[in-house]
Design a protein that fits this description.
CATH class of one domain: Alpha Beta
Strand order of the largest sheet: 2-1-3-4-5-6
Distance between the termini: 51 Å
CATH superfamily of one domain: Methylthiotransferase, N-terminal domain
Largest sheet: 6 strands, parallel
Structural class: alpha/beta
Bound molecules: S-adenosyl-L-homocysteine, iron/sulfur cluster, FE3-S4 cluster
Number of strands: 20
Helix content: 25-40%
Radius of gyration: 23 Å
Length: about 450
């Protein structure tokens, strides 16, 4: 049964994988005749695609849900609210929905998003008091195959505006870093068959996307779960050869699985960008071990030096968690020292957030909140100074920039990303979104590079 002209709206929290999933949810709803609402308050169905990686991410969702109901209630038009994504997959969420957000009618884990249209119809018909749920068996209770969350191939996706598109190359994660909830919310690692990946990328390139970002929780382990076919290095080589592709990025890497062979393939490729996001998490070997990361600070350092040696000008960025249980001043010093030594281009820095069900949440010696935030502040200061100095050292260089759109601060200028993923504002008028232009850096700050077009006054590469 189809009901036409129902409207939908999707709000997405969390990582790129969720953004990619939201495109699929939109595509599926549109296939069923739903139309995207201009405003969330006009929608008949609101999907909130959620993240559970830190407590703050969950709190954001709960307060957004409350606000949605309040605002739509004032208009006399409360939509069907769907809680999708990683929070839905957590044990206990249905109970929490009953307590904190009884107006949520449907909870759908990441492995079941393709069922959203059918489930929405069910909710519309049943009007039951209890939320309808579709989640995978939890990993601790089920065998691997039962808790996998691979989506069927060939699902529709809405066409997102812009010049870059995401392609999931794998689902789930098998690493069980001791602080992390993702292996529980996303299930075991399952790689997509390379043929499906290549076909999807070719279609996106044919539609005009310039840049493709490959997604997975640990892309360097791509293919480890397949009987045959390429690993990550081989996959990159094949993607690099897709006719028409201009830029390739990938997220996220795991330093333990990033082999020299992969660095070599990247150094020889034409389109894989010179940006390495390598989450370090901690510079202390003792903490790295407790985190179950599988590498030492020395191995991490060797990898960074190998990359810098093979690919001069490559940018390396990282993620760091401070205040992991039992982290001493000395452990934290180790992190600061390594950060000062390596001089990475940038870092996302977090305070440890205990996630129920993970090993780290059960560990003794949880660090007090104040100490965690003091450490974060100290680290942020050190790293931001390094980022600023590196960016300033780029003044005078020429960067290839993929133009994305007008700069929000100076709408007469255009902004885009360098191959190193640095934000660049182009002060020459004329480029359009999708153009690859060369910019000579004249000015730099912690978060941007800025300058006029170089060399090709009109020409785009
Ligand atoms: N699979 C990716 C992304 C994981 S989530 C990866 O391995 O990098 C992104 C970042 O969030 C992680 O790199 C980590 O730095 C941070 N993070 C994950 N769990 C966290 C927690 N419980 N508390 C604080 N930060 C966390
Ligand atoms: Fe979490 Fe570690 Fe998997 Fe990343 S690699 S998603 S941090 S368990
Ligand atoms: Fe968050 Fe799930 Fe991504 S927990 S970071 S949305 S995989």
């Amino acid at each position: 049964m189809k009901r036409n002209k129902l409207t939908y709206f999707i709000e997405t929290f969390g990582c790129q994988m969720n953004e990619r999933d939201s495109e699929t949810i939109g595509g599926l709803l549109e296939q069923e005749g739903f139309v995207q609402a201009q405003d969330v308050l006009d929608a008949d169905v609101v999907v909130v695609n959620t993240c559970a990686v830190r407590q703050a991410a969950e709190e954001k969702v709960w307060s957004r849900l409350g606000q949605l109901v309040y605002e739509s209630g004032r208009r006399g038009n409360v939509p069907v609210i769907v809680l999708a994504g990683c929070m839905a997959q957590l044990p206990g969420t249905v109970e929490r929905i009953k307590q904190r957000a009884p107006y949520v009618k449907l909870a759908v884990g990441p492995g079941h998003i393709h069922r959203i249209p059918e489930l929405v119809y069910r909710v519309l018909e049943e009007c039951s008091a209890k939320p309808v749920t579709a989640v995978s068996p939890s990993r601790t209770e089920a065998r691997r195959t039962e808790s996998t969350q691979m989506l069927p191939e060939g699902l529709p996706r809405v066409k997102v505006p812009g010049v870059s598109a995401y392609v999931a190359i794998m689902y789930g994660c098998d690493n069980f870093c001791s602080y992390c909830i993702v292996p529980f919310t996303r299930g075991p690692q399952v790689s997509r068959e390379p043929e499906f990946i290549i076909r999807e990328i070719q279609e996106l390139v044919d539609q005009g996307y310039i840049e493709i970002t490959l997604l997975g929780q640990n892309v360097n382990a791509y293919g480890h779960d397949l009987d045959r076919g390429p690993g990550f290095a081989g996959l990159l080589e094949r993607i690099d050869g897709i006719p028409g592709i201009r830029r390739i990025r990938y997220l996220t890497s795991h330093p333990r699985d990033f082999t020299e062979d992969m660095v070599d393939v990247i150094s020889q490729s034409r389109h894989v960008c010179e940006h390495f996001h390598l989450p370090l998490q901690s510079g202390s070997n003792r903490i790295l071990k407790l985190m179950n990361r599988g590498y030492t600070r020395e191995q991490y350092r060797d990898l960074v030096y190998y990359i810098k040696d093979r690919i001069p000008g490559a940018a390396v960025t990282t993620d760091i968690i401070v205040g992991f249980p039992g982290e001493t001043e000395e452990d934290f010093r180790d992190t600061l020292d390594l950060i000062q030594e390596l001089r990475l281009d940038g870092a996302f820095m977090f305070v440890f957030s205990p996630r129920k069900g993970t090993a780290a949440a059960r560990m003794d010696n949880q660090i007090p909140r104040k100490q965690k935030s003091d450490r974060l502040q100290a680290l942020v200061e050190v790293q931001n100074e390094i980022t600023r100095a590196i960016n300033k050292s780029l003044i005078g260089t020429v960067q290839e920039v993929l133009i994305e759109g007008p700069d929000s601060r100076n709408p007469e200028y255009y902004r885009g990303r360098a191959r190193t993923n640095k934000l660049v504002v182009c002060t020459t008028k004329g480029p359009k979104p999708g153009d690859l232009v060369k910019v000579r850096v004249a000015e730099a700050g912690t978060w941007y590079l800025r300058g006029p077009e170089a060399e090709h006054p009109k020409g785009h590469i």
